[in-house]
Design goal:
Elements: H1 10-18, E1 25-29, E2 32-35, H2 36-43, H3 56-78, H4 85-110, H5 115-124, E3 130-131, E4 134-142, H6 145-156, H7 163-174, E5 186-191, H8 197-205, E6 216-218, E7 221-231, E8 234-235, H9 238-268
Antiparallel strand pairs: 1-2, 3-8, 4-5, 4-7, 6-7
Length: 274
């Protein structure tokens, strides 16, 4: 049993997720909230994408698309589409899938997983929870090498204990990475494969509390990188993956329950395959 296997497809998943995730409001359009459910519908065209991990510019595009979709839905309702024969026929065709989705959500809600079950799975499958070496870093991105060198010179002059403050100030003043410049260029935790090779190589060579003494060139420009912390590779602690384990086991048990129910129903059903 592997966590990557804990999945269902299509509209059924959307119904299940709709009741499984607390709704977050991103915008309000003519009194109607745009929530994470609306965002999830847009992201179906981007398999594997998570809104929070998208670049800020892409997040804006996704949100704008959700807003435009809501405006079109509102207009369609004003035009009375819901009263048309086309809509009524489409609704009839969708009813079976919706009924199945709601039934599955109700069955999922009946399933509970205890902490002891989760801990037992974690202890027996620790190899599933390995985490790679990670670093927590900040960066300042500029267009030219001379700009980057000037920033490094200013960091060299930072008073003892004030390096982060100076880095934050220089980031807000000079960095062209608009998404995080105001936050001191904070990139959070990341692994080697999450950044372009030149950036990762420079970041992972640094020791905690140090910054690059020469500009790091990538296809984005020139970076000055400050390393805040490091995590060695190893097994992620249970508390860090507890929710993932609980949800994974719940979905696995749910799939087993549904499969058993389908097999039981088929025994008493008249099925003709042509």
């Amino acid at each position: 049993m592997k966590f990557k296997q804990f999945c269902l497809g299509g509209m059924v998943v959307a119904v299940l997720i709709g009741g499984y995730i607390h709704a977050k409001t991103f915008a309000i359009v003519d009194g109607v909230e745009i929530t994470d459910k609306d965002i999830a519908m847009i992201l179906r065209a981007m398999p594997g994408a998570t809104y929070d991990k998208l670049p800020e510019e892409v997040q804006k595009q996704v949100l704008n698309q959700a807003i435009e979709q809501r405006l079109l839905i509102n207009q369609a309702k004003k035009d009375g589409v819901q009263n048309s024969d086309d809509f009524k026929n489409a609704l009839k065709e969708a009813q079976d899938e919706l009924v199945l989705g709601v039934w599955m959500k109700q069955e999922l809600d009946k399933i509970t997983i205890s902490n002891s079950e989760a801990k037992d799975f974690y202890s027996k499958n620790s190899n599933l929870f390995t985490q790679p070496e990670q670093v927590k870093a900040r960066h300042i991105l500029v267009k030219t090498e001379s700009e980057a060198k000037n920033i490094i010179t200013q960091l060299d002059k930072a008073p003892k204990g004030k390096l982060i403050d100076e880095f934050n100030k220089l980031s807000s003043q000079h960095s062209i990475d608009d998404g995080i410049a105001a936050n001191g260029g904070d990139l959070g935790w990341f692994g080697r494969e999450e950044m372009v090779p030149e950036f990762s190589e420079a970041a992972f060579k640094l020791s905690k509390g140090n910054y690059t003494k020469t500009p790091v060139k990538t296809n984005f420009g020139y970076h000055v990188i400050l390393l805040e912390d490091k995590k060695s590779s190893g097994i992620a602690p249970f508390d860090g993956v507890k929710e993932r384990v609980l949800q994974g086991l719940k979905m696995q048990k749910f799939k087993e329950v549904v499969a058993q129910k389908a097999q039981s129903l088929r025994k008493d059903a008249k099925v003709e395959i042509k």
